[in-house]
Amino acid sequence: MTGPPLLGDRLRGAAWTFLTAARTEQRSMRGNPLLLVNAGFLPVVLLVIAVEAQRPPADRAAQIVTSVMLTALWGSTVWTSGGVLRRERTYGTLARCVCGVESPTVVLFGKSLGATLYGVGTILVATVATVLALRLPVALAHPFWLAVGLLVVVVSATTLGALLSCLFLLTRNGLLWSGALMYPVFVLGGLLIPQDVLPVWLRWVPQLLSLRWINEFLSDAAGPGPSATPLAVAVALTVAYGVVATRTYRWSIDKARQRGSLDHA
Amino acid sequence: MSGAAIEVEGLGRTFKVRGGDVVALKDVNLTVGQGEIVGLLGSNGAGKTTLTKILATLLLPTGGTARVLGHDVTSDLREVRRLTGVVLGGERGLYAKLTGRENLRFFAVLAGVGRRGLVDRLEAALDHVGLADVADRAVETYSKGMRQRLHLAIGMINEPPVLLLDEPTVGLDPVEAERLRQDVAVLRSRGTSVLLTSHLLLDIERLADRVVILADGEVAADVEVAEFAKLAGYTAIVTVRGTGCPPVLDGAQASRFAVDDLTEASGLWTLRLRVRDWSVESFGHLGAVLGGATILGVDVAPLRLEDVYSHVAAQLAANGRTGVGEVRP
Ligand SMILES: Nc1ncnc2c1ncn2[C@@H]1O[C@H](COP(=O)(O)OP(=O)(O)O)[C@@H](O)[C@H]1O
Ligand SMILES: [Mg+2]
């Protein structure tokens, strides 16, 4: 037998598992109807509704497009990356996923990334196609910051998806919760409906959603110029999601191994 | 590395369920040596799957200890997982929308197979379990047997030194089951240690070095396969049909043969004898027993492990052990 693996080997092993998990999840997203509805169809509908009443000027159009895309991303996150562990349970694959050589968290985040990338890609394609079809004048003011924003979006949605996955795992009714969570955030998420329209006692809700801060960052980038604060808050929230997700997941797995419910549907 | 492949000491597992506790394992003690293949028997609910899951780190014990190649299954998870392959079988546990190859690839990486040589290894494993032709079809189109074979490929993909097989032949047709037995036989030559649960005693007979029977949460018997066969107290059954007066066994004959059953109907009788030790002389002794009778036919059936198991199960049940069911009279 060989001794304990070196740190470099450990990291390489974890990265390989992470990427394989992402790739596997991407493949299993092919033709997923939940993804097509939430990432493909939703942005088209929202965008058409938003701009057909009144054609916006170029800088405002960019903001609308951003809000619509992030709203669609919330929808697809709830169902796709947020559904990773729920699907694992349905297929009966959870046991193998948590009893691999690498940490279960590596597998979960990898899968969440795979689902997120697929969702973001679909949303981008659907949105760009709609923007072109509607001949919307969208100005790309700061391509660099746009790219930074996109990167943060992917990382943040990945972590948020993992967190939702873990929370849904705590209940046997993940599907129900996905449905229940989706629409309130459309209203309360501060993405489509401005936050100041909400009653004062509900205004804290959007503050907890990283996507809302990324929306602010991208809106600023399209208009007056990027500001650091919303980006920093989004990153901080993302880290917090990650920590809570990891803790919750470990706790759920330990509980399941104690109860003997790891391979329950 | 020295020592046993699997060491289980005082292992217990109690499940909390509504309305009380279910004791699946009470006090299990068991060792599987390196390179040894041990067959695990026991009726439904005896705790075989529970034991397998504890060894595979899927389930925590509520008492006692279990070690795989010296690594504790509750504290040294990473090493245990690296060194152990498990096949729990069944139709779940696979991604239905993904192809067989994609499933195998993902689980291979989880089991610690690196990037180098992965493609070749997948190819060889799929070929080995006879799924090469259907490897690029979605698993949802697979038959039960194909899924079971994929489970096997997954469990063995990292060539673990310790393999846990829980009912691997369930759902396989006779040809597939035979192929699986050959696969396990190959493992023997590689020096893999195997804990094999099966309802099919043929599996045990062909593959195992030793038999462990679980009953009532404890090990009720732990013997070499050759010894196991002797537990029944006989090695063959001779069925004789004849007319006229059926033979009667005297004292010396009764030490070699035991009358299992004697039926008479309309002048015909059928006598079933258990032969304690079948040997060349047995024919002579049998001739003496059947001496004056008019014989119509004789049929000799060697002992099957099924018979031993029924016998042992019946004895356990008679001793008040509830863990062994399905006892035939
Ligand atoms: N997760 C669980 N929760 C409650 N009881 C369980 C659970 N798993 C197994 N059991 C009980 O433990 C006993 C042993 O089950 P099992 O190990 O599956 O037996 P076997 O594999 O020998 O048929 C049974 O009575 C079964 O009902
Ligand atoms: Mg079982």
TrEMBL record, chain A:
Domain ABC-2 type transporter transmembrane intervals: 23-218
Keyword Metal-binding annotated: no
Domain of life: Bacteria
Membrane disposition: Multi-pass membrane protein
One GO cellular component term: membrane
Keywords tagged on the record: Membrane, Transmembrane, Transmembrane helix
Keyword Ribosomal protein (UniProt): no
One example GO MF annotation: ABC-type transporter activity
Predominant localisation class: membrane
Pfam families for the chain: ABC2_membrane
InterPro entries attached to this UniProt entry: ABC-2_transporter, ABC2_TM
Chain segments annotated as transmembrane: 33-51, 63-85, 117-138, 144-170, 175-193, 228-249
Subcellular location, record wording: Membrane
Protein name: ABC transporter permease
The species this protein was found in: Umezawaea endophytica
From TrEMBL, chain B:
One Gene Ontology term, aspect cellular component: plasma membrane
Entry-linked Pfam families: ABC_tran
Listed PROSITE patterns: ABC_TRANSPORTER_2 (PS50893)
Keyword Metal-binding: no
Coiled coil spans: none
Domain ABC transporter: 6-241
Protein's GO biological process: response to antibiotic
InterPro entries linked: AAA+_ATPase, ABC_transporter-like_ATP-bd, ABC_transporter_ATP-binding, P-loop_NTPase
Molecular-function GO term, any one: ATP hydrolysis activity
Location in the cell: Cell membrane
Transmembrane feature ranges: none
Membrane topology: Peripheral membrane protein
Keywords, alphabetical: Antibiotic resistance, ATP-binding, Nucleotide-binding, Transport
Family named by the database record: Belongs to the ABC transporter superfamily.
UniProt protein name: ABC transporter ATP-binding protein
Species, as recorded: Umezawaea endophytica
Classification lineage: Bacteria, Bacillati, Actinomycetota, Actinomycetes, Pseudonocardiales
